Amino acid sequence: MLSPPRRWIRDQCPSAVTSCVRRGVCSRRHSLWILLILLVVCIAIQMFVARQARNDKLTGLPHLRLTVNKPHLFSTAQNEWEIVHSESSQAVKTDLSRNLTFALPLNKHSQLFYPFFFASHFVEGFNSRSVREFHIMCNHMRFTKSEVAKVMPEDTFYFSILRHPVAMMESIFIYYKSIPAFHKTHSLDSFLDSSWRNYNSSVKNNHYAHNILAFDFGFDNNVAADTEDLEERASMAIAAIERDFHLILISEYFDESMILLKHALCWSLEDVVSFKLNGRSEQTRHPLLPNTAEKIKRWNALDWRIYLHFNTTFWHKMDSLVGQEQMKREVSQLRELQAKLANSCLKDGGAVDPSQIKDAGLKPFQYGAAVIQGYNLNPHIDRQTKIKCQRLITPELQYTDRLYTQQFPELAAKHRQETRMVAPQRQRSDRTGMMGMAWAREAHHRQIIRSKFSNLRNQKASTSAMLTHTEDNNKTSML
Asked: Cα separations (Å) of 272 from 54, 136, 283?
């Protein structure tokens, strides 16, 4: 068998992760660490419920629940892009114990310097050793196992959630319509009919347009459907994902995924109740023709094979871990709990367009042509219930901002000062308050990291030129 090009396959160090299910996470006495890498498919990311005391004494920040001795869990506060990193991953958000420490992006960034391959020094407090241990890593990244392993403990539980490549591509086209690959095409069909003419992998942000799932997992996404070794590449990618991740969930079966996660981690049903975050308004959704779906599967052939495989293994895991009848019962119970919670927490019981959200702190970031919905809190709830409900509907940028401020108060104050200096004079009308600050901060830090990478490349080129010059001089002197 041919080996794939070295630049294609991502880091393949043997996983040091232990199996949560087989080794009895429920009875483990040592800390459980959980890592959610919300990938493009994803997944994003926001949820995790932490175990709060049964008396429900709530603090200003959410926390997770776990029935192990020390509930070191993981909640996602990332994947703000409903599109690529889907609304479902975002819904995986919940409460976090103030005893849990997040591996948050350096300099108050909302992503771990995506789309660059993740590196351990992207995490605030890692290089400075100001943080003794990290319990949760969930901000969006391009996965690199060896670098993640430097940050997270050896017994970290890795999981992700995949979204159907067809639905994801439709979302990406709406959300990232301004990227070079899509900019000149009037429709998704138009792009797909001339995809290789429109798509240039070397152009900034074009990675969103092709096999984004594979890209986020750390693989080369520039694989065509007629590539001679497509099947081999897909098989190797699948094998690497299976080696590095304990559990892969499916966005299209989100409730079933939460039940499966509940059993894998020995949580209660209340631990996996959530509201859908980053959902798009129906007015920006466009049904696709059957032939369009087939074009997408062909264009994103690598993603499609990865998704098909893990869709199959998802149901196998469900049968072995839960069973069909029990799954039906628990999904029904979960939906009843969700309905009850929505009735208690939400004004009018559901999501609304951003223009109708009264509290700016609950308004999701708006980008592209998508209209990302959010929620209004029920004004007739008591203070304690309000705090609990607010955790469930806080968008990722605000949520991450709160976590960063809690973990690094002095740095947070410093970055607020910097943001005032770099904030653009003109912002979209819906980028108010924190949204505008976050947008400015994102642009500023993306520019910084690109500058650093550019300088590094220039240094390497300069060093190479010097070595070549020295070699030439040596050859001349020998002659």
From this structure: 16, 17, 29
Instruction: List, for residues 236-269, the tens digit of each pLDDT value.
Output: 999 999 999 999 999 999 999 999 999 998 889 9
Which residue's structure tokens are 């899509």? 182
What's the pLDDT band for 276 if we cut at 50, 70, 90? confident
Strongest mean pLDDT among 52-56, 72-76, 92-96, 100-104: 100-104
469 occurs within a structural domain:
no
Structural domain contains residue 475: no
CB-CB contact of 330 with 259 (8 Å)? yes
What is the rounded CA–CA span in Å between residue 72 and residue 407?
16
Record the tokens describing residue 464, joined without a space. Answer: 């190479």
Q: Is 116 helix (H, G, I), strand (E, B) or coil?
A: coil
Rounded to 5°, angle at Cα 183 from 182 and 186: 80
Written as one letter, the residue type at 323 is: G
d(CA 191, CA 160): 29
Q: Are 140 and 78 in contact (CB under 8 A)?
A: yes
Determine the pLDDT at residue 155. Answer: 87
The DSSP symbol for 102 reads: B
* CB 159 within 8 Å of CB 245: yes
| pLDDT tops 70 at residue 327 | yes
pTM of the model as a whole: 0.74
CA triple 68-72-129, angle to 5 deg: 145
Which residue range forms the structural domain that includes residue 182?
A: 25-51+59-395
Residues 88 and 222 in one domain: yes
Q: What share of residues in the chain are helix, strand, coil (percent, to 5)?
A: 50, 5, 45
Tell me the CB-side half-sphere exposure of residue 385, using CA atoms within 13 A.
12
Q: Give alpha helix (H) positions in 195-249.
A: 195-198, 212-216, 230-244
Where is mean pLDDT largest: 251-260, 355-364, 420-429? Answer: 251-260
State how far the Cα of 260 lies from the Cα of 327, in Å rounded to an integer: 8
How far is it, in rounded angstroms, from Cα 223 to Cα 232? 11
What rounded mean pLDDT belongs to the chain? 76
Task: Tell me: do 401 and 366 sit in the same domain.
Answer: no
d(Cα 276, Cα 436) in Å, to the nearest integer?
A: 23
Collapsing DSSP to helix, strand or coil, 346 comes out as strand
Q: What is the largest CA-CA distance in the chain?
A: 91
How many angstroms separate the CA atoms of 177 and 179, rounded? 6
Query: Strands (DSSP E) along 100-163, which ranges?
Result: 136-137, 156-162
Give the model confidence (pLDDT) of 49-73 as tens digits: 333 333 333 233 333 322 232 333 3
Structurally, the chain folds into a number of domains equal to: 2
